[in-house]
Design brief:
748 residues, alpha+beta, Beta-galactosidase, Chain A, domain 5, 10-stranded antiparallel β-sheet, 6-stranded mixed β-sheet, 34 strands, 30% helix
Length: 748
Amino acid sequence: MSVSKRLIINVALFLAVASGSILTGCRSEKEPVDYVNPYIGNISHLLVPTYPTVHLPNSMLRVYPRREDFTGNKLNGLPVVVSRHRGYSPFSIYPFQGGNAPEYIDYEYDNEKVTPYLYQVCLQNIGADVRFAPSHQSAIYEIQFGGDGTPQLVVKSNNGSLTVDGNAVSGYEQLGEYATKAYIYLEVDQPVVSQEVNTQGQSASASLKFADNVKKLNVRYGISYIDEAQAKKNLKREIASSDLDAVAEKGRQVWNEALGKIEVQGSSEEDKTIFYTSFYRFYERMICMSEDGRYYSGFDGKVHNDEGIPFYTDDWLWDTYRAAHPLRTIIEPEKESHMVNSYIRMSEQMEDYWMPTFPEVVGDVRGMNSNHGVAVVADCYAKGVRGFDLEKAYRACKGAITEKTLAPWSAKRKGELDEFFVQEGYFPALATGEEETVPEVHPFERRQPVSVTLGTVYDEWCLAQVANALGKEDEYRYFMDRSLNYKKIFHPETKFFHPKDKYGQFVQPFDYRYSGGQGARGAYAENNGWIYRWDVPHNVGDLIQMMGGNDAFVSEMERMYSTPLGRSKYDFFAQIPDHTGNVGQFSMANEPCLHIPYLYNYAGQPWRTQKRIRTLLTQWFRNDLMGVPGDEDGGGMTSFVVFSYLGFYPVTPGMPVYVIGSPVFEQATVHLEDGKRFEVVCHNYSPENKYIQSAKLNGKEWNRSWFTHDDLAKGGKLEFVMGDRPNKQWASSADAVPPSFEWNKHNN
């Protein structure tokens, strides 16, 4: 053998090994995506688990195994696309071998492996090994048949139509009761010997049979929300061949680019797994709906030109405004501006020009309470993300707050309760024994009066910030004054926010742990009075004074963490199932809790925040199947984990300020979109050294427990000297605490 031939063979062997290692993860050094464990949280403590989602960041096509949760014993077919977060899955694919395939196949399965860019599983019923790799709007399955008999592939639509043309299947499925349709174009790489088609109806199906000697089948498909032709274009644009390994490798590169925007060093491999898995969850929302410059909108049922700005949807703002959107303003401000533009378009496309609350592929479902789209708008503008029409955004936000009813889970126009809120400054509760008669109120969700009041006055504060930016001085002062109305429901004796009836009387008798009925909805929402006691993120300083000052505030915070459930877990969680992840009356499992551990900073005791954050992260966020304490909501909660591991958190979206916690890593580098870097460095680092002894920002001594977005956006270095005992003097003075309420006045 010649030297040249030997060299060629050796190079080929090297490339083959390298290619294989890419997909198996056999590398000398881990890359960010290698730390992602999609199984974290796949068994829930009580409510909805996380799902091992296979997708590319913010992409339209995403899938996860079709089962209840990780403990599900069988798979109900192979997924094609998930049209809403942890929700509806149109279409399904069923490989089969032997005689006629049954109408539905529940597969026993084994040897499952999930990464963000590659899914593998063995379908034991038929002895088939399956691999799957996604692109943005298309994907590929590889099926290795291991049994005897005729190999088959069944494609099903639960409510739609399918047709077969040669080796291609195309059709649509209508999404539930909505007008929105998902479309598919699918190709197989083997000749079709025979076919059976049920073209239309509740169980439309196409069954393709292949020659008996076919052992491997590649199935490529594109999806669309526009039409079948666009689904075909999406496939041809993204996946030109049947090379699954190439698709998976490209997906891996995309994920490493996204996750690599934050680099971390130090700490344990477990911490890196928790961090990068949380970061991966952040990318589940929103999803990009633009297809070759067009997009389907479920908000008016039409196809639009995106005019060069991608259209995004699928977002639950009650969850994501707190940390997920603020995280994106740091690492991907252009994409965040596209998302705000998408919200404006949704408002323009709906019957009423109102900012949505829970926009999905099918339109806005008006979930939860309050209208926190205004917090996203205010936060973006305050942090310099301004690639959208602020006047249009203001109109949509103002309309949602002042024209739509504030009653939870409702899209109706304002009614008598809303007029009462305008006049009296609070959302009225039902008096003891009073029956509901107001038509805007959802029979299950009820009034949630304290949560609605607190959430709306914060929204009004955010609206004031936008009005100020637009030079609307009168409206700025009006909404700033209204944002103080949390005082109307503050009980001066108990120091809790307490439901008040239309006569101005506090509802009695009342227990802050248990009152309010199912989910505490007669008073609060999903959590009890202990959680909503701290829900004034725009004016924490005033809340401290209402509590009686710093010492009283801290004392009550500590009392929350030590007050027992007071009932058996069975009884407590039967009434308030969202209130899990308990430390006393504190619940780590639901989004209204996320800012609470950071509030010690405002009372001059940041060392308590440092201790509490580290404790909560260790207790409730772990690298295991129950490693998420509650309903994660597609990045709503895990974005809190990303921030907290970095060592800071946006307590008040709409104010360009980050409150300092306790950084977990020895060094973290945030790569900003403009090429700058922001570094967080810990000296005297060890995992046990959770307390800040001193700090520097860009080489200058830093004795504040906060810093600004501008400090971060211009790049630089935040340095901490850490220790295992608290330095109770650091950032403890009155001029060291984070600002509250009037940022513009503070900043000037």
